[in-house]
Structure formats: structure tokens, C-alpha cells
Amino acid sequence: MRQVAAYYGFREDRKHLCLCPFHADRHPSMRIYPNDKGFYCFSCGKGGDVITFVSALYGLSNEQACKKLIEDFSLPIKTEFDTYREKREREKNIKQQRELDHFRKYADVTLRMYWILLCEASRDPEDPHFEEAMQEMTITEYRLQCLHDDPAEYYADRKAVKKIGEIRDRIDRWYRSDDDQRSLSG
Ligand SMILES: [Zn+2]
Predict the structure, then answer these.
(1) 47: helix, coil or strand?
(2) Is the pTM of this model over 0.70?
């Protein structure tokens, strides 16, 4: 505790008192106890162990405060404070984030490809895809906009996700003969 307080700039007087960072302290009123027994402020009543001290000082969670101490003091400790559940939770979040990221890229490429095809078709009323272009261009732009505005919300919408798959199929069939002109509206 003393080492930590000194490292973060707290000067103890002979009675092991220093200025308390948790209230407007003019005369040292925070005691730092020997043998790693923590700290206590006689003015504002704030007290605790070294982790409480660092987390309150920097506005961190206890876990973040531990990590900060490990870094600042180059402690040879692997960060394994997390309980098993926290670790699982974090892995799950990372996996979900990756899935979302993957979907976002896939959907973006799909919608853009489709939009380009529609654009081309819209220039020529004789184009076999002209009507489809008239029908689908605006909604495709709208879908792209939604995807960019909030990919997570888009991904949560099962119908919207299914639609991306259908559009992808539609693109695959685009240059194949006119055997399938099924509309995509809806
Ligand atoms: Zn205080």
C-alpha cells in the first residue's frame, strides 16, 4: 500500500498521514497503514485496501484496478482474476462480435452488388431486369442505410437476415437465362 501510494504521488508525513484524494483535504488526514493493511481517511471516512484505493482514485472497477497495478508495477502475474463465468461471458461476447462483423461485411457486399446490378438495369427499359430495378432500388438503398446505421439491430431481425440470403441467391441467378424472374419485393 505504501509503495503504491508513493508511486501515485502521495507523500506521507512522519505519522504516515497524507493528503486524501477523496475529499478536499488541506491537512493530511489519510492514514496509510503498514504491512499492507490499507488506508483510512479520518476526515471523509474513505478506506479500504490497495485495490479499493486505486479503483477509487482512477474510477476503475476492481478488476481494472488490479490490471493497472500489475502493469504499473510490472508484476509477474497473469490476469486470471476473472471467474470462470466472466471469462466465458467475455468469450461469448467476442464470438458474437465476430459473427456480427462477418454478417455486416457479407450483407454490405451483397447489397452493394445487387444495387449496382439494379442501377445498370434501370438505365435501359429494354433490359429484362428493368422492372425489378424500378421495384428494388429504393428498398435496397434503404436496407444499406439500415445496415450502416445499426448493424446489430439489422442482424437481430431474422427476416432481414434471411432477405440478404435471398438477395445473394438472386445475384447468383442474375446472368442465368430469364427462367427465374421471381420478384424479391417484400
Ligand atoms: Zn478523505
Answers:
(1) strand
(2) no
What residues does 48 pair with on adjacent strands?
39
Span from the CA of 3 to the centroid of ligand 1 (angstroms): 19
**Residue 81 is placed in which grid cell?**
482474476
C-alpha cell at 48: 479500504
Residue 11 CA: distances (Å) to CA of 21, 25, 39, 58: 12, 13, 13, 18
CA of 115 to the centre of ligand 1 (A): 63
Query: From ligand 1's centre to the CA of 62, what distance in Å?
Result: 20
pLDDT tens figures, 76-131: 776 655 577 778 888 888 999 999 999 999 999 999 999 999 999 999 999 999 99
- Spell out the domains of the chain, with CATH numbers in brackets: 2-72 (3.90.580.10), 84-185 (no CATH)
Distance 35 CA to ligand 1 centre (A): 21
Task: Write out the DSSP string of 171-184.
Answer: HHHTTS-TT-----
What whole-number distance in Å separates Cα of residue 118 and Cα of residue 11? 71
Q: How far apart are CA 171 and CA 163, in angstroms?
A: 12
